Amino acid sequence: MSDLNTQAVARYKNNFLREVEERVEEGNMVKMCMQCGVCAGSCPFGPHWQHSPQKIFMMIRAGKREELLTSDSMWMCTSCYNCIVRCPRKLPITHIIHGLANYAHRLKLVPKGQPTRDVTKLFWDNLMKVGRINELTFSLALYFKDGLVQGIKNSLAMQSAGLGLLKAGRLNPMEIFGGHKCKEQSGIHRMIAKAREIEDGRRGLLA
Amino acid sequence: MADNKFAAYICSGCGIGDTLDIAGLEKIATREGKMALVKSHPFLCNAEGVQLIKDDIEKEAVTHICVAACSRRAKTEAFNFPTVSMSRANLREGVLWVVAEGAEHDEVRQEMAEDYIRMGCAEVKKMSLPQGNAKRDQTQNKTILVVGGGMSGMTAALASAEAGYEVALVEKTAALGGFAGKLWKRVPFSSPYADPQATGVAEMAAKISANGRIKVHLNTTVAETGGAPGRFKVKLAQESGVVNDMTVGAIIQASGFTPYDMAKLPELGAGQANVVDQAGLEAMACAANGGAIKRADGKEVKSVVFVQCAGQRDETGTHLAYCSGHCCATSIKQAMYFKDANPEVDTVVVYDDLRVPGMGEDFYRSAQKKGVVFTKGKASKVTGGDSCKVEFTDLILDEPTSVDADLVVLATGQVANAGVNLDAWTEVNTAAEGGNEEAKQKRSEMKTISVLNLDYRQGPDVPQFKYGFADSHFICFPYETRRTGIYAAGPMRRPMDMLQATEDATGAAMKAIQAVENAAQGRAAHPRAGDLSYPIVRLEGCTQCKRCTVECPFGAIDEDEKRFPVFNEERCRRCGTCMGACPVRVISFENYSCDTVGMQVKAVNVPDEDEEKPRILILACENDAYPALDMAGVQRLTYSAYVRAIPVRCLGSVNTIWITDALNQGFDGVMMMGCKKGDDYQCHFVKGSEMAYYRLSKIGDTLTQLGLEPERVVTEEVAITDNARVAKLINDYAAQLNDLGLSPMKGFG
Amino acid sequence: MAKKQYAFYPGCSSQKGASAANYIASFGVMCDKLGIQLNEVPDWNCCGASIGYGEGGELPRMVLNARNLAIAEKELPGQDIVSGCPACWLGLREAVDRLHEHPQMKTDTNEALKEVNLTYQGTSNAKARHMTEVLIEDIGYEAMKAAVVKPLDGVKIAGYVGCQANRPYGIAGESFENPLYLDRMIEAVGAEAVPYEQKVACCGGALAFSEPEKSQNLIRQIVESAYDNGADMIATPCPLCQANVEIYQAEINKKHGTKLAMPVLYYSQLLSVAFGGSIKEAGLNGQLLRAEQLEKIAGK
Questions:
Q1: DSSP label at B652?
Q2: Low-confidence ranges of chain B (pLDDT < 70)
Q3: In this predicted complex, what is the ipTM?
Q4: DSSP three-state, residue C19
Q5: Contacts of B among chains (3+ CB pairs under 8 A)
Q6: pLDDT value, residue C81
Q7: Which domains, ranges and CATH numbers included, belong to chain C?
């Protein structure tokens, strides 16, 4: 729970659809779903979703806010875009799912340890450092995200692959010291901070 | 009248002459067919060939011709000689194209062609030139009576009047408009299909009043209808009791629908405050006049739930079993009434399957854009009152849930105003005629809902099909009822929306116009449009068995006091079902009779047993099965050369004498091919194929008496697209007969 | 003949020493033989990839891509911006689309770009494109065929188009369910394109990190389908597909006792070998699972 969440509940009362329309990427398209279920049948991770995209759209209309935002369904999206190209109503489903995930994350409603949420955060943090992804530090951060012991286990498990990549010239150990980076790092930081400020303002998310 | 003179013309074109011995065929036509003139031509359907025949008709006084060329369905414009009787021997599609190629088949192929020549000659000898309905001077009335002043009736009246016909428009209430007149707006029927549109009822009514060809009879019902196309006698009863007689040429019944009685839905809140049906909501919207919709207690509606399929698509047998088609779009429209007046009103549509035919998907999307919420669910309980509640199962989330609202609207569906159910009527009427007083009482009660009050022997209204809707030929002739000259339009023939009803009405108007024109010329309506033949009965042989009157699918035959049949030729569709039914064979047409077919059967040369050449008679319906046989030929699909096919107008016209004659003569099997029967029938005469099956079910005993296996007579349902199947059916049957062995009747015929 | 000029956005994985270093290595010979000049966008930044959504949000990701577009627009005016990575391409192309369609989004984006002294104009006709689009639309299959000096005779290749090279944009004129362009490129270099069911299936994408079991199930299906249909190797236009499908085969073998060892190449490596590139020039030395058939042809 967070202040942002309390504020959202107070602001939208039971109108979850309106909340999604105003605050979630492409949320205004949710109402156009006609419940055919093609998205659910097209998802490569289909069986793993607690609530399929089809059900998610229904839950939004049915006001099942808490149940949806605290679930890990949106975090099952592999961004394959199958649902988007097949949707007869042309809903940008992938974007809506991304948007819902982002929103749940912003409101601090995502279950602790949700692995995809952790990966997306690590990824973003990594790219924010120098403006580009450092694959070595990103991988290491991934392996060690659940603590040192698990990290060593993870590293060992993928050791042969790591060594293979190293040998193949596709993983550079020197990257640990910084490696590729953008020149204009501080400008990028300011730019992103500004973008977030504008977006939060538009979505009423400024605390 | 001059003496009959017979001629045969054999075409050797299209490869016929390359494969068949034309000289041999000429010899058959002369010696066995007894044709006075026999000529062959290498290209009979070209101008020169046609001229050859015309010259003979003119100069040689030929009165009957047999054209032995392609199928009777081909080259109909070239071989069109209206002053003579004509038969067609099908050498191309029936022989050349279906018998396997190669010299080893030459003999059976030639035999097949020779038989078709014999058959063509035999047939034409029994034909005479149809003269048309002799009573046509009495069938010249072209006024079109439209019963019902709603959207369908008004459209039909305007369409008929604009085409130049006088119209009598009868409406039982005090104003035109019908159900459409009670609507605030209608579902859009023009681009962009995004918003409700004005109904246009007032404009239509004004147009009707201004049209000099349309006479409107308000507060009027039809007290009695008798007669036939071109001469219907109608009694129009005014509310005041005044009755006016009038004669009309054709009738369009546009008696509309009644919303399913929501009182039958107590579990969905019927009778409780703030639960209404769609008609009720329309009244509220009309009262609001574009402003906020208010409940009966005056409170402004801030939230509304629409319950779809209320008392519809019911599988328990309690309520309507069917989908009424319009109600999803109607609820969408009504939800927009609220959203357009105030976007803040919560509108929820609880649906099972949202069905929006036509351009309805655009309308549906428009509603979603306006914020109407659609929830896939099945309502189980509605509670009315100040705060209504709809309990339903969410079919996506698969859980019971509920929604509160100020108002609940039930989408209850359409019940046809088609008049009296004739099946029930017949039962009651028979008992009443037998003197049962209770039945007499019941019969008078039943009559109160009659729309047309026909004085036909078969009952007071048009026959119904499923669920009380008027029967019509769904595939081929949608506006046809089973009463010639009476056409159904709008939701009395099937559930439909307003746009479909107006299309229906236009179609029905066209059919009514055709009916009066055909009647005036003494010709048949479709599917034998233009046929001038009509049933002729030799009453001196009639046994008053009533089979013809009962079996006629179109109610064309009444009975006189002595129970003799009285034919109303204008009601007749020329299917010949009466002819097939008649046990004493006293009914015939000039160009189609027990003899025209019977003599063809007799003309076939059935080889002796030792030749081991079986013969299979096919009686094929000319509407579907015979074209399918032709198409098999066009596709060069081969079938047994032992087959002899005769087209019939309808399987219903098949008289069992043809079958027994064929078997007596030594035919090894008889195969009948007709249209699909039953609930989803495709028979062009509705009941013909069904009658054939029924009669055939009784022929088994006769066969056994003859010492024949019942398998020697089979009936198949064949659709016009069944060209490949039809060849296979024949070959399979030929193989089956081969296993059975040759008929023991050979040599006795 | 003058070379065709393109602004080039390599993306993070295609940097030297990164996971798609073999991919970028093979661009040299390919572009050279086909007359393509790639001009790297100066000081480009990460596109945010699809996986950036969780933390990133909509506008920050938009702005990341807009910065790259703005630099390209300024420094390499009029040139289409090309990437070899479908995720990078998608990020750029989505940004171009949305910035054109939503004036508010463009205003907001330019507001943020002020922090780096840039403005995205979006007034030229420069498009965001994937490298395969350049090859197919600007060069053409016939020209690719004409540049072949060592046809890949007898090599059976399962073209693995995957997700983001195919959806939501894909190559113009191709179907989402069965795009044929990769097969046609495979055939252009003399190899045999093997039909199989998993051509546009998902490898799990970035969820290979977070949901390894589920993703590896998908990867296993892809590789096994390629085997079942007689493929010698897989070829793809996507660095993440390449990495996932190649790297995790050993993992899958360990867990399930399978013996998967299907080389996974880039289309550009096939072209490079066919155009006469050496093992190194084609990046074949960068494979975890070596493509011996190709190495043999390249070594001739």
A1: G
A2: 1-2, 748-749
A3: 0.95
A4: coil
A5: A
A6: 98
A7: 4-131 (1.20.1050.140), 148-299 (3.40.50.11810)
